[in-house]
Every structure is written in structure tokens, then in C-alpha cells.
Specification:
450 residues; alpha+beta; Alpha-Beta Plaits; 9-stranded antiparallel β-sheet; two-stranded antiparallel ribbon
Length: 450
């Protein structure tokens, strides 16, 4: 009996192992599904690769392949896949951010996962949980790291829709993602099941995956029409899957991934895999020690990506990259919190913002002119009057403003004392994520920034 047959790993587990999600569109020389499926299955066994699923398609492409892969193995995997499938056209989509997964609870990206269990997870735990150890599997299910896979009560139509925008601007992309998520949350769109939304690069900028019952087939067309009419100039492509499940592959993590993680601290590796390159061996102990002392068990996936860019800048000596990534983070946060502050005040205190502005310590009459410090003072005031979430949100936000100002004005010695800046930044980053989460819950406005 396969105890993992109807299970899957939370995407945070794949990221913990240094894997990234890829999709591939493939056109083959001869559309022989059974023959190709066997060749791909044999290739996966030979290469000891897992978390790969292959779906046959209607239309101009014959297959779509979904794969979680260590970056170091992605090129090799593509070459083996092309040979096994006999491809004559092959296009890649590399996922850079997951904006929605169907199993997220209340749209929260961490789905209530136990981060301490995640960060203590090793290769042996994963092997045992997906093969023989039922008790370990139950523990990981309790930590929300193993998910019960979707099961179809009726034969559903699985589809993928891509969206490529006329403008390749990050702020535009953030706005588009926000609009799509809001649209798909409407009651009229509850016919779409097991919805996932990804952004990335390759054959598209955005990829939507969902399924509908056969009686709701025409809802797919309505979604595509809404995308085309809402985002003028954008290009869409929709691919219908020929079956309700993959023809080959499964959700298990395999030995090729475990080999890539040998001799590495998986927590550190999930943040900055580059530190395990030979040329950075001398800096590795210092970085491992620092990351294990600061933020362990508290960092979200977004936090890890941000800290990755910070430490990568330290590793390669590009201080401008550090300044850029941290500055962009503060720009995203400041814009989001300022845009949501009026609604937050009204929903929590049942008054207009202008009526409590002076009491909160803000002199500017227009919210459009608020600085980051002004905006955070309002949130602190509201939290003291009607608290929700952690007590830390009632404390002063001056340290956040101080860090932001030091970075903007070039008063940080990145190379010599990077730990002295990064340690307080991580502490305040965790507080800001808590505040953003509260604002999202209260205002129902998703945060789509860095």
C-alpha cells in the first residue's frame, strides 16, 4: 500500500529543499501517449527524480509537464525530458512567485504551517513519511506540511490559462495579480476549483491552473474573455487537459533532490543556496551561524527571498544590489500600508482617518502625503485602541523608519558590518509581516509586493 498516494508536499517543503517549480509545454514528433509516458517514467526512475507530473493536452501542444527541481539539475532534466518525449518544440515557464494555491487557508500563504517542524525537516524524515512511516506522516500532516490531494467527485476539466501583459512593469503585474485574485474570489466564480496562480518568466508572465465540472465548461471561456477585456493588450492562451490526472509521475520527492542537499544545513540552504558553492566556503560558517541565530522558525517564504538577495549581495560584493532589494521592499510596504490605512481605521475604530490623525501624532492633512513613519504611527494608534494580533504591533515603529532612512541615505557599511544591519532588519521584518497580515485580514486587500 502506498501511504502517500493521495498526498502531496506543501510548496514550502520543496522550497526548503532548494527546489523551484517549473512548467514545460511540449510538442512531440508522434503523439503516442502510452509509449511516451513509459519512456518518461523510465527516465525519472533512472535519474531518480520525483515531484514530476505529465498531462496530455488538447490543441497545438501535446503535453504540459509540471516539475519541482533543484536549480542545479534543471538543465539536465530538460535534456533528458526532451529525449524521452521525442520533443520537436519545448517551452519553459519558471515560477518566481506563487500568488495562490488552492490549499491555502483563508488565502494565507503559510496555510498555518508549523515553521519549526519545517525547518527541522531533513531528507530521512521525508523519505520515511512518503514511504513507510505512518506516524511520521501524520505528524507532518498535523504541521500542514503534507496536504491531502484534491479528489474529484465527478470528472472535471483541468485547464491552464497563461497571461502575458503588454507592459512588463512590476507594479502593473502586482495590480493584475490583485485584480485576478479578487475576481476569482467572487461568488460567481466558485465553480472554479483547486485554483492556483503563479507568476514567472518564460512562455508567459502569469499562469492560472484550475478545474471545473463538465457542466461548467463554458465558465472557462468567460474567464478568458474577462482577462482579455480587463487587461487590454494582454495575450492569453488556454490549454485543456485530456484527462483528470497525470499520465505519469507523482508528488514524491526523490533521491536526486536529496543528493543535492547532502552536507548542507537545509534551513540555510532554503535561504541562500549559493553559500554552498566552493568559492564561498570561507564565508559559510559565519552565514550559517548568523541565520540560525536570527529568524529561525519565523521567516516566511517572502522573507527568505528578501534575505537571499541581501546575503547574495554580501557574498559577491555588490552592495548596490542590497540597497536596491531592501529599498524596493520598503517602497512596496509603504505603498500598501498607506493605501489601506483609511479603510483599516474605519473598520477597526468606526471613524474616519482625519478625526484621529492628530491624536495619532500625524500633522499632514492628506494621506497621500503621509511618510512611512506617519502611516505606521496611525496603525500603532489603532492597535492600542482596538488591538488585533500580536502585542508587538502596539509598540513604536521608529526602528523600522530608522533602518529605512539609513539605507536610503547610504549610511550602512554593508561589507564590514552586514550582521549589525541585517539582525535588526530581520526583527522588524517579522513585525512588518505580522502587521501586513492583520491589515490583509481586516481590509480584505491582499499584499502582492516583495
Amino acid at each position: 500500500m502506498d501511504i502517500f498516494q493521495d498526498k502531496m508536499w506543501h510548496h514550502r517543503v520543496h522550497e526548503h529543499l532548494g527546489e523551484r517549480l517549473f512548467y514545460y509545454l511540449v510538442r512531440v514528433q508522434s503523439f503516442e501517449v502510452e509509449h511516451i509516458s513509459k519512456r518518461v517514467a523510465d527516465m525519472l526512475t533512472e535519474q531518480q527524480m520525483g515531484s514530476v507530473r505529465v498531462f496530455p493536452l488538447f490543441g497545438m501542444y501535446d503535453f504540459i509537464v509540471r516539475a519541482w527541481l533543484p536549480l542545479a539539475l534543471e538543465r539536465s532534466f530538460c535534456e533528458h525530458l526532451k529525449i524521452a518525449m521525442g520533443s520537436k518544440a519545448f517551452y519553459e515557464f519558471s515560477v518566481t512567485h506563487i500568488d495562490k494555491r488552492w490549499y491555502w487557508l483563508n488565502d494565507a500563504t503559510n496555510y498555518g504551517i508549523n515553521r519549526e517542524v519545517l525547518e527541522a525537516l531533513d531528507a530521512d524524515d521525508i523519505r520515511e513519511a512518503q514511504s513507510t512511516d505512518v506516524s511520521k506522516l501524520q505528524v507532518l500532516e498535523g504541521a500542514s506540511l503534507v496536504i491531502q490531494r484534491a479528489t474529484n467527485g465527478s470528472p472535471d476539466i483541468v485547464f491552464f490559462t497563461t497571461l502575458t501583459l503588454a507592459q512588463r512593469d512590476q507594479q502593473v503585474l502586482d495590480r493584475v495579480v490583485r485584480q485576478i485574485r479578487q475576481h476569482m474570489a467572487l461568488s460567481d466564480n466558485q465553480d472554479f476549483k483547486y485554483l492556483s496562480l503563479y507568476r514567472g518568466f518564460g512562455f508567459s508572465q502569469l499562469l492560472i491552473k484550475a478545474q471545473v465540472e463538465t457542466s461548467h465548461y463554458f465558465r472557462i471561456g468567460k474567464l478568458v474573455m474577462w482577462l482579455a477585456e480587463t487587461f487590454i493588450g494582454a495575450m492569453t492562451e488556454t490549454y485543456l487537459v485530456m484527462s483528470t490526472s497525470q499520465t505519469v509521475g507523482d508528488q514524491k520527492i526523490a533521491e536526486a533532490t536529496f543528493r543535492e542537499t547532502q552536507g548542507r544545513d537545509l534551513y540555510v540552504f532554503s535561504i541562500i543556496p549559493e553559500v554552498y558553492d566552493k568559492e564561498h566556503a570561507s564565508k559559510r560558517p559565519r552565514i550559517e551561524r548568523f541565520l540560525n541565530e536570527h529568524g529561525r522558525g519565523k521567516l516566511s517564504g517572502r522573507d527568505k527571498k528578501l534575505i537571499h538577495e541581501y546575503i547574495k549581495g554580501v557574498l559577491v560584493g555588490r552592495t548596490a544590489d542590497i540597497t536596491k532589494c531592501v529599498s524596493n521592499f520598503f517602497i512596496d510596504v509603504e505603498a500598501y500600508l498607506r493605501d489601506a490605512v483609511s479603510a483599516f481605521v474605519e473598520l477597526r475604530l468606526d471613524v474616519k482617518l482625519h478625526s484621529i490623525r492628530s491624536e495619532a501624532g500625524v500633522s499632514k492633512p492628506s494621506v497621500d502625503d503621509f511618510t512611512l513613519g506617519d502611516t505606521l504611527r496611525v496603525y500603532q494608534y489603532v492597535q492600542k485602541r482596538n488591538p488585533v494580533g500580536s502585542e508587538e504591533l502596539q509598540q513604536t515603529w521608529d526602528p523600522v523608519v530608522d533602518i529605512r532612512n539609513k539605507i536610503q541615505h547610504g549610511r550602512v557599511k554593508w561589507q564590514q558590518k552586514w550582521e549589525d544591519t541585517l539582525a535588526p532588519f530581520i526583527h522588524q521584518l517579522i513585525r512588518l509581516r505580522q502587521l501586513i497580515s492583520v491589515v490583509e485580514q481586516v481590509t480584505n486587500r491582499p499584499y502582492t509586493g516583495s
